[in-house]
Every structure is written in structure tokens, then in C-alpha cells.
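for the writeup, i need someone to sanity check this before i put it in the appendix. the sequnce is what the collaborator sent (i think, or maybe the updated version? ugh). structure was predicted straight from it, no edits. if anything looks off just tell me and ill rerun, i have time this weekend
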Amino acid sequence: MTQIQRIKLPSDTCSFFKNQNIYDIENFNLLLNKYAEFEDNMTRNLPEIDSSKFSSCIQFIKKQRYLIERYKSQGYDVDTYIFRSDSRIVVGLGQESVREVSMTLHWIYGIPYIPGQAVKGVVSNWIISEGGEDDENFKLIFGDEDNKGKVIFLDSYPENNRFYIRKDIMNPHYTDYYTKKDFYPTDWQDPNPIFFLTLERVVFNIYLIYLKKDIRYLKIAGKTLEEWMIEAFKYGGVGAKTSLGYGTGQLTLIGGNM
């Protein structure tokens, strides 16, 4: 059986790929979610890819930078951060997927990214965990039920095309014990390996747009937003499995217009 016969696709799509390797496709979102081989273990056979496949998406990233320049030209304060992960990053693991494990990918270009609401959540949750949510400046920056926040956290895309999407594995033992089929975590219970996708060697751009002048200098519980962000990404991390060290790293402010 050929590779294309193991994938449920419309007949015209099968005809298009008849003489091609389906893993040469540039849109990783299609490869992951639409071209899934249904006769094999769909988590064990997760596709991997290096960033050279995303070469056509670099122009899209440059367009985002053009958008940033437009905000600046209209008088908005903008801060630019670089996030370098110390380890692998797992974003969107729990989203719906035909493979039961997923990854956050751009719906058109297929490139991995961190949604703006995830960036905002990383920072706000860290401040809350440190007891700063009652500060009025916290509500001013992040908003509340009655008011919108005065800072926009944009979606974050890779800074360069030198990253990799690779498989990782979690291998829970004592499956019967955890599913309450057995009273004890005995050694004769078979492990249940689960594969998932991670980002390796990736550097992200993170942009913040301030809708109110001088708001970047406000302090929340004695610290500026920049200080809180650096702490949040270093110790809290972004994405899933942060308690195991995934998604933590160094956040650096590289530019901001005054």
C-alpha cells in the first residue's frame, strides 16, 4: 500500500500528490491535521519538520514588522522583546486534533506561533501568583470585567528560520493504577508511551503596544511590566509542561520607541 493510500483525502487531492512525497508539503498545519495516516498509530507517527520548509512564510513575518512600524508612526508606544527558550516549547498540546495531541499553528501558513492571549496569560498569571492582582495598575494594564486593558499583546512568531519541530515522549507507567483499574502501582503494568510535538531552538519576537502614553513606566506591586515579564518567562514559562522545564527561557527587551 502506498503512502497516499493510507491517508483519507479527496480524489483530486490524491491525484495531485500521486507522484509526490506528501512530506514535502510546506504547510505543516495540513500535514499534521489533514494528512494523517489512519492505519497506523497517529501519535507514534507524528510528522517532524525543520524550519527550511517555512521559507515562504518569512515574508509573512516581515509583514508583521511592517504593522509594528505603522503603530509607531501613529504615535503608539511599542516594545519589542526577544524570547529564547532554555529548552523545548509545547504550545497548544491540549487543543482538538485528529491525532489527540496538537500544536498551535497558523491556520493559513502553518507556521508555529504563540497566541497573544497566551503571552498575556503568562504574565498576568505570574503577577497574580505573586499577589499583585489587587494593584490598580494591574487592572489598568490587563483590564477587568468593565474595562479593556491598555496594553495589546500581539501574537508572537519565530524571529528566524532556524528552528525545528520534533517529537517528544511522555511514558506514563502504572496506567491501570491511574485509571483506577488496579489498587496498586505494580511493576507488571505496561507503560503507555504518548508522543507529542515540541519546538526546538526557536527564538520568538514578542510585541507590546501601549494604548496610553507612559503606561510602560507604571509599577505593579513595585515592579514594572518589563520586570514582571522577564520573571514570568524565566520562572513560569509559556505553554504546557512548564513544571518540567518546558517553555522557560530568557526574555530580553531589544527595542522600544519613546
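The radius of gyration is 21 Å. The first strand starts at residue 49 and ends at 50.
thx in advance!!
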